[in-house]
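Might I ask for a little of your time on a matter of protein folding? Here, with my thanks, is the record as I have it:
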Amino acid sequence: MQLSEFEIKRVQRLFENYCAVRIPVIMKGKLKLEYRIRDSEVILYESRVPYNQVDIWYSTTVARFLKDNEHNVWHLFSADRNDDWIVYQPYPYDRNIERLIGAMNEDVTGLFWS
């Protein structure tokens, strides 16, 4: 089931703000965070330019936030080396997506930003 228009706007605002402050200013031309909203999920990507290349960006998945509309909770997943999604065990779900973004940012396991 798709997110409501209100929820889409809210999620866009949250992720725009997060992506804007996560990357250091010195890295802005070489590294960026992007997100995509599809149906009831948000996927966060890290994109970077390989050394000695300017026009090519490579993206890797960082995290997946999936809304369970039946239970009104968000689930947080990390990607393994094969880009398969694994439930983030220290903090698998919450009603508040901001808390899951905080858990991803804190990254006590090193699965997102190590």
Observations:
- The longest strand covers residues 58-68.
- The helical segments are 5-22, 97-106.
